[in-house]
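Memo to structure team: turn this sequence into structure tokens by end of day. - J.P.
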Amino acid sequence: MSDIGWVESLQKAIEYIEEHLLEQISIESIAKQANVSAFHFQRTFSILTDITVGEYIRRRRLSLAAQELYNTSSKIIDIALKYGYDTPEAFTKAFRRQHGLTPSQARNHSGKMKSYNRLVIQVSLKGADPMNYKIVERESFQVVGVKREFSCVNGENLIAIPKMWNDVHVDGTNDLLFKLNNGQIKGVVGVCVDKRDQGSQLMDYWIAAENDGDAPDGLLQLEIPASKWGVFEVHGPMPDAIQQAWKQIFSEWFPSSHYQHAGTPEMEVYSDGDPSSPDYYSEIWIPLM
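Reply from structure team:
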């Protein structure tokens, strides 16, 4: 996909959302407009915008609802139903959470409201900060570790994964994985495995280490498929440094390169050391095609 095509595909998906805001729309139908999987569309969207697709839809619906309350005489219950709320109570709760006032107060022009406008994706083809990366081709390899299954609905996985990392640090699994690490990738890896092609809204997240032996008791094995990888260096404290790197990759590197995400599992690699240090080193591994 060309640089322009990459941006246009994302914008096409956003236009689809806008055209169907008053309908029940699925992540799968939105992602189809961008010709990517639902998992990767939602991930790219959240990296670029810092909100989930579901949150964007909610904010846009409530912004339009506020405009109708302010500018028309339509009944509040009719506006609530129009924008997907079955009861006035549910509508009032969501409206107050976004705007800081009730629908009745908005109707009476008795407060300020927040308006979230239609999103326009913009990318920078010449980043201000250089990215250090290399292209690596590898045959399939094995990691051993622990995994949990998470729902991707409403970004639940984005909340639960940091809790999983905390757990493996507390129970000693993280230290064990560093000891078991005997492969080319030096460090503990976080691996996202999309399960949506199985018709579910679920993903597996692994915390593991490259190891060519049998998995010890209590750990599982995962085979990472052969791939061409983009390996991006990350320098700085967690989680800010790696979050910023992801955003730069999707907003600058992908649009200006001829590569696409291959759709197979991607990885974050964490070195041994103090994650809060300004000199902490980590990597992002993205399968490319």
